[in-house]
Amino acid sequence: MNILKCYLLVATLFFVGCAEVSFETIPPNPTSKTDVNIPEPQPEPQPEPPPSKLTTEDFNFVNKKPELDILVVVDNSTSMYEEQQKLGTRLQSFTDALDEVNWQIGVTTTDIQSVAHGKKGELLNIHNSSSKVLTSKSADFKNRFLKTVVRKETLDCKPDCPSSNEQPLLATMLNIEKSKSKTKQLYRENADLVVVILTDEDELSTGPSHATKPSEVIRTFNQIWPNKNLSAFGVIIEPGDYDCLNSQQLDGQFATHIAEFTHRTSGKTVSICENDYANGMKDIGERARLLINAISLKHTPKLETIKVMVDGNVYSNWMLVGKKLLIKDKLKDGTPVKIQYEKI
Fold this sequence. Notes:
Blueprint: H1 3-18, E1 54-60, E2 67-74, H2 81-89, H3 91-96, E3 102-109, E4 134-135, H4 141-149, H5 152-155, H6 168-177, E5 192-198, H7 214-224, E6 230-236, H8 242-245, H9 256-264, E7 268-271, H10 278-291, E8 295-296, E9 307-310, E10 313-314, E11 318-321, E12 324-327, E13 336-342
C-alpha cells in the first residue's frame, strides 16, 4: 500500500472513533416494584363476639294475698293405719309454718275403685262436721284433722276393703276436675293449691305405663286454673331409699310418679319411714309458704350463674326450686327485681 492510502485509512478511523453516539431511551419495565401501586395491607376481619349466654328477667315484686287451699290425699289401704296416725298428729308442725297464711284443708283418699270407700277424688266430711274443709278457725281443728285422716276402713274393712291399687294422682286430678262442682268448697278464686300425698306405693302400686302421669294432673290444673300455682308434696318411699323400701313396717314400692309430681311443681318429699313427721311437715309448710310469692322464671337456670338484684342491690337471701326463685324476705309491692342467669 502506498503512503497516501495509509494516511486516508488513518483519517477515516479517527473520524469514526470520535463521532457522536446517540442512545435510545428505554421505557421502564412496567412490572418494576417502584412503579406499581400496591394496596396498603388491610387488617384481618375480627370474628363477631359470641352472643351473651345470660338471660335477664325483670319483675316488679307483688305480694300475693297469702291464701292456700290444701288437698290431703290419704292412702286408705289396709297397710297405712300407723302412717295415717303419724300424719294426723303432726298437722300443727305443718300449720305453724304457714305464718300469716289463710289456709283451709280438704281430705280425699287414694281409692277411686271400691264401692264402699272409693271417693273418686271427692272430699271427705271433716270429723264431727258436715263441712268438707277445715280451717285454722275451726274448733279443735287438730283433733278433727287426726280423726279425718285416720280411716276406719283401713283398720277394719271386712267384707269390703279399700282398693289396694292406690291412685293418688288420679284422685288429685279428679278432685281438680270437680273444683267447680262437687269439690268447690275447697277452691277459692285467689288461693293457690297445695297437694300433700301420703302413700306407701306408687300410682297404681308400681307405676305401670297406663298409670296417671304427673303431666296429666298439671295440665288439668292449668286448664281450669290458669292463674294459680300448684305445688305438690309427698310423704312416700322416696326413690332409691332401699332402707325404707325394705323396712319391716312396710310392704310398699318406690313412689316414682309422686316424686316426679313434687319435683315438677317445686315441692318436696319426706320419707314415710320417719319415726316422727314433725320436721318433715314443718319443712313442707315452710316451702308452701315461700312458694306463695315465688318468682316463676322462663327457663331452668344453672344455679351457679344466678345473680339477683333487688332495688338495684345484690340480693342473696333466695332459694331456687326448679324454675321458681323464692324470695325469703318480705318485700314491698312494686320493688324492682332483676334476675340474670344462664339457662340449662
